[in-house]
Amino acid sequence: MAAYLFPIAVRCLVTLVPFRYVPALRITCCQVVSKTIQGYTSSRKCCSSTSISSESPTIDSGDTVTEYDRLVQCGSLREDALQRSVLQRLASLQHTLQNYSNTSYLNPPPLTINSNCNRLPKRTEPCIITSGASAGKKEDAPPPPPKGFYIYGDVGTGKTMLMDLFFCGAKNSRKRRVHFNGFMLEIHQRIHRQKQSLPSRTLGNMFTYDPISPVATEIAHETCLLCFDEFQVTDIADAVILRQIFQALFKAGVVVVATSNRAPSDLYKNGLQRDTFLPFIDVLKEHCHTICLDSGLDYRRLRRTGTGKLYFLTREPGADATLNAMFDELALTQTSFTGPKVLTVLGREVTLEKTCGSVADCTFYELCGRSLGASDYLEMARLFDTVFIRRIPVLTLRIKDQVRRFTTLVDNFYDHKVRVVIQAAAPLDELFVQTGGDDERDQELLDDLGLKEKVAERLTLFTAEEETFAFQRTVSRLTEMQTDTYWMEGDRRQTKKHLNT
Q1: pLDDT recorded at residue 204
Q2: Residue 145 near residue 286, CB atoms below 8 Å
Q3: Tens of pLDDT, residues 71-84
């Protein structure tokens, strides 16, 4: 056992037990939790639940700035004038939302189908199913809802910490916090359900329909405050529907607060068919104040690293044996046997070859070499609290798809406090290399899309711009994930104990 240093935090927490993860919760709601902010540790009351519950503990909105001051005074935070000014504006919105409800903006009529749909005559106007404020009597419009905030800046500048304080202090029972990618996944699933619930189209009963507005109306009935972490757009399927979704949400009085690494004008930058996306930026700016939070510091890199080792180089002598011993020690605390596990995700089966209870021992190829996505990684985050990732190669542009999946994997694991032990071909700061990129698959995709090479030079689908930008966040997060504090926060046994008290 002297061959390796097992993290102190892990040794204290090796009696892990499986924990039932609730997908609706982005961060666990707790009474008292040891929370690391900007590289320092503090114990404070918090509530980061996305569930709608009036019993959730909160920080008084009037005391949010006072709480920030207290954390600074006790050394848990470093004083940052820019963060303070942003928090003051967020505290003002908290006060406004204290008794806010968007019910006056909700007046959805029932779905109606044009009566001409019973026949199939020649006509110039399509037969449409409508939903929204277009039907019914027009009444006096309520005053405009409060404007939200879109906060952007470099990685590690404290955006998540400010969102923590804002969300905990918001005394509104109809609030929800969610990772933006997870939200869009949910949107597409709801749209699919809407389509399935509509009557079948036959030759004598043809109609067109709008499944997007009813989905926005559903969400507006469930919440009046939406808080988004990591607002970024990389998927064309998301880009083409964002304006309609958010126009409907804003019209229904939903207030949005979001954090992002991208300025609004840089969202979906150089994306495929970006022209269809640009109107969304105007909608966002109209309904949200835009704030740049960029103090020039990555606070995650200032955090004290753990005393144990969680990042190993593949070329290190005995690296595999060390990881094997770490896995075996964690496996002793589990109630099941070591073996393969089959995950069922959206009707598909994904097999991980080596698991034991809440611990998984995977290769990079298992996680990123196959056609997996955010939904698969969310399911892994639900089932496992500790994941070993072995044999990560140097990430070049020749394997862009794998780089994108690795970034998505780390984002989802970080959001759900999954602990990782890594074995890689290079140190973290040297893991991503901006070389390669022109492969046969890119050329095939160019041909399929009917695009010329000069056009492709500007599209993020073929360039390294998006990967380079996203990987900065990945490095920052993996740095934090190696600290003892992060491992302690990932102890789901302790989390479950807090939820039961």
Answers
A1: 59
A2: no
A3: 888 877 888 889 99
